[in-house]
Amino acid sequence: MGIQERKEREKERRRQQIIVAAKRVFSEKGFNKATMEDIAKEAELSPGTLYLYFKNKEELYASLSLRILQYLHIRVEHVIKETELDCRGKLKALMEAMYDVYDFDPLIIINMFHLQSSETLKNLSDQLLAEIKNLSQKSIGAIAEIFEEGIEQGIFIDRHPVALADIFWAMFSGVVLWEASKKIINENKDYLKPTLETAFYIFESGILARKDDA
Fold first, then answer.
1. Model pLDDT for residues 143-158, shown as the tens digit of each residue
2. Which of 9, 33, 90, 196 is the most buried (most CB within 10 A)?
């Protein structure tokens, strides 16, 4: 292994060390109360070292979303490649994939949804913002492919597939955020999966084409 490669590996190892520490701190204190000093202490590094890797707390917070977006894209691409499934089968597989995405890291996906609806995005570096945008667009585009196939076969209503993908994603994120907020008030209440199941059922019923559809 060359010196440059060794340096790159060490840099990535340190970056992951910071991300793991940040996840713990954000989980315990929440985004607003957490500080870069808290994260540095958790990572057993100096605050100055953190700023070599992340320009601010917002960028570190947003970096946590990349992993979940990468996993989302992988899962949706896998559904698309299920050639033995018809479009309704793929839709059901997509719904199962969304459960997996949530289970992959519940805290991070909730953080990601908060990020999407906050001012935090304005404080990110152009590179990180471009990565998040690229992965998000790829995932929505992949979801849209499933709807486009169903529209072409006359199974789903004739509406723009990207619009259907946006609505599907908005429904998923909305249910996750709403149920997460309810759990904060009463931690004994956890109806996320039953609520998602109902939401998915209503969504599927609503996009099925009928003979009287214009």
1. 999 999 999 999 999 9
2. 90
Neighbours of 12 (CB within 10 A): 11
Residues 8 and 111 in one domain: no
Return the structure tokens found at 55.
């320009």
Give the integer Cα–Cα distance in Å for 57 and 63. 10
Name residues whose C-beta falls within 8 Å of residue 160's C-beta, 6 or more positions apart in sequence. none
For residues 68 and 45, membership in a common domain is answered with: no
**120 closest CA partner among 26, 2, 13, 18:** 26
CA angle 194/202/188 to nearest 5° reads: 20
- Domain containing 1 equals 1-54
Contact partners, residue 202, CB within 8 Å, separation at least 6: none
CATH number of the domain to which 162 belongs: 1.10.357.10
Is 196 strand, coil or helix? helix
